[in-house]
Input
Amino acid sequence: MSKDTLLIDGMCGLCSRTGKFISKRQSGELDIIEQQSDFGIGLLKAHEINVDSLVLIRNERAYIRSSAAIRCLLYMRWNWRCIYPFAWAIPLPIRDLAYIAVAKLRK
Output
């Protein structure tokens, strides 16, 4: 099984800062890669993802939008991981609406 991978938009300042934030607080093994890199493009094609979103590839399964963002908590230290169940309790449509609203403002 390969290492889990987080694909971020390398052209987005918010995405890049989020990647740095996660990497500084990381406790689990997670590669953080730009979607525009050759490896990132290959992963997106391999998983047939054509969405402008944060993408987490975990156990060979791809997660996008808020599902990817919340699962990133699982790779961070315990004080961040404890937020996971509370964030996960929010229904997916509401989480994704919030994610999309922030994503529109980031550009």
Q: What stands out?
A: The CA atoms of residues 53 and 65 lie 6 Å apart.
